[in-house]
Prior knowledge:
Elements: H1 16-20, E1 31-34, H2 42-53, E2 57-60, H3 74-82, E3 84-88, H4 92-95, E4 98-100, E5 104-107, E6 111-112, E7 117-118, H5 123-126, E8 133-136, H6 139-144, E9 167-170, H7 177-184, H8 186-196, E10 201-207, E11 224-230, E12 239-240, H9 245-257, E13 262-269, H10 275-289, E14 298-304, H11 309-318, E15 331-335, E16 341-345, H12 347-364, E17 369-373
Parallel strand pairs: 1-2, 1-3, 3-8, 5-9, 9-10, 10-11, 11-13, 13-14, 14-17
Antiparallel strand pairs: 4-5, 6-8, 7-12, 15-16
Helix pairs in contact: 10-12
Amino acid sequence: MRTNAGPLFETPPASPTAAEERPARAWRPRRLLVTRAARSFAHGRAILTRAAALGVEIVELPGDRLMLPAIDDPRRAYAEAKATLAVVVAPPSKRRLQPIAPSADWRVDLAEGCPAHCSYCYLAGSLKGPPITRVYANLDEILDSLPGYLGQGTVTSRSRTRAGEGTTFEASCYTDPLALEPLTGSLSAAIAWFGRWQADAQLRFTTKFADVAALLPLDHQGRTRMRASLNPPAFARFEGGTARTAERLRAVRRMAEAGYPVGLTIAPIIAAEGWQQAYAALFADAAAALAALPGLDLTVELITHRFTAGSKAVLDSWYPGSALDMTGANRTTKRTKFGGEKQVYDADTMRALRSFFERQLADRLPMARLLYWT
Ligand code: SF4
């Protein structure tokens, strides 16, 4: 089935700053590819129906391999992939959960890829191939496997201060699930599933998007923690295609009012010129947005910017004009537990950042629980 044949290529915003100045609209891919296997799942078919109703071009693939035309120009190849949503089936290997320190006991993927254009995107170093967003049609199989992991966690479950969260499942490792929600409904389904699951468990997701309207009426039973992933408006140039910071903060407030536990993921913390003023303003905005919320359950996660040689090479090709500093200034090399290397801020910069953030947190958000600094 093909509907709405639009132009083949979509160019990402030349300047993410320009994109940030207007309110984020729901993402509408240029085209949706659906594999044969995905069409046999009701959830996959529901996504097709939603996308077709929005006028998205639907391409039914004859088999289960994703195919995009070969394009030599890397920038056009990037734009082509970013404008594509694929509905696929997560194979058993992808459904075997991995621990995801320091956020959660387990990583659960509802999708892979993201339509936004952040100049530091961590997916650049994690996902292989063109950055097509893939959403999983076999959501029920994914969720139904989770009880097998209950009580088996080794990350938050083993933490003295976080064991009270129960077995935790992080849904934002390889995607921004809220960005895809108007098309997929996967996040709502997962939240409702955890609401029905009478177990000591928690779904977690973090997002740079803000359209939470569909999540507010869900019977979540407090078993989903929504966090907004934040950077100050002054750094919006690094986060093309995402919702504005003020919208994300408003979304956190609305979720808290709907009884969800909430959080702020300040990530990635960027030590660019003017960072003290920029982040001080962010803390002030967050404090104002979350004032006078009785019973607020608020956590904070602080994650400094880092990159690897591999992710830098990919990001340089995706965002050649980005102002994000990845030159190696103020950096030191840290070995990862998988034997690789990453560039993190050097000890002096880390010390300055950490004491600043801890002070701001104590002054502006004394009711928040800091989960980790990294
Ligand atoms: Fe990457 Fe997150 Fe930005 Fe999406 S919102 S492009 S996943 S950093």
